Amino acid sequence: MRHSLLSVLLLTGLVSTPAAAQTTMAHPATHDLVIASGEGVVKRAPDQVFVTVAAEARSRQPNAAQGQNARVATAIRSRLETFALAADAVRTMSIEMQPEFDWADGKQTLRGYLATNVIEIRLDDVTKVGEVLDAVIAAGATRITGVRFTLKDLPRHQQEALTLASAAALARARAMAEGVSRAVDRVVRLEESGSVEGPRPPMPMMRAMAAQADVPVTPVTAGDVEVRVTVTLHASLR
């Protein structure tokens, strides 16, 4: 009987010890947090621009369409040489060949083939954009698919915006803490998101029409490039 009672007591102790440990760990220490966001915006005049143009040619035979397209693309590149661009400033983005069909009475008939050559041009002098647009159109480009203004040293401007956003987020966190008679102890987490927005150039059709009219140089006005960064800050309070 004595041995049985001792066994029960020992068994009870073995069972209750883990339960006590679980009860202690179920209440970990917690810290009050404040979460605030700040935005940093840097605006700079663009010092670089990328122009994307396309040369297109149609023919009943694919090799004829490709040959016509190659001649136009070569003429565009020759005209660009007059601007003394850097060796890596002109690159081919895509070369495509696709059939075109006519539909009649529910049936399709092969009309011919469309050959397309898309070229990207990088300009480090944004004042030359209008001249380049006129030159490539005169050389035979059929479409201007994009004009994108940007900054050569974009990472540096992004870091500047990031610094401004972080400072703004910390200032907001401190103001929020002071409003409830608390103070920021330390930053425990930072998250950032950002975007780069350039000025919107005129529509491609408008540029082509201006080049075909009796206008010396197609006017293109570049606005500011806007680098925008948002930082979300998590800080503990004391």
What does this structure look like?
This protein is an alpha+beta fold and 238 residues long. Helix content is 37%, strand content 38%. It has helices spanning 2-25, 62-80, 129-138, 154-179, 204-212, and strands spanning 33-44, 48-59, 90-104, 107-123, 143-150, 184-197, 225-237. Strands 3-4-2-5 form a four-stranded antiparallel sheet. Helix 2 (62-80) runs antiparallel to helix 3 (129-138) and helix 3 (129-138) crosses helix 5. It starts with a helix and ends with a strand.
Ranges with pLDDT <50 over ≥5 residues?
1-30, 202-213
Rounded to the nearest angstrom, the radius of gyration is 33 Å
What is the element string, with H for helices and E for strands? Answer: HEEHEEHEHEHE
Q: Shape from CA axes?
A: elongated
For the largest sheet, list the strands in their spatial order: 3-4-2-5
β-strand number: 7
Look at the helices and sheets and give the structural class: alpha+beta
> Helicity range of the residues?
25-40%
Mean pLDDT: 83
What's the helix count?
A: 5
Strand content: 35-45%
CA distance, first residue to last residue: 59 Å
Largest sheet composition: 4 strands, antiparallel
